[in-house]
Design the sequence.
């Protein structure tokens, strides 16, 4: 049972979530630093 589409969607969503977390963390860091 190798669901390639599910794995691909999971990788895309997880990478998008990671990018969003990094953006929010950097914005919070800059606001706290400024």
Sequence:
């Amino acid at each position: 049972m190798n669901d390639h589409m599910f794995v691909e969607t999971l990788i895309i969503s997880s990478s998008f979530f990671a990018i969003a977390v990094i953006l929010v963390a950097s914005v919070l860091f800059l606001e706290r630093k400024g």
Q: What stands out?
A: Residues 1-34 form one domain.
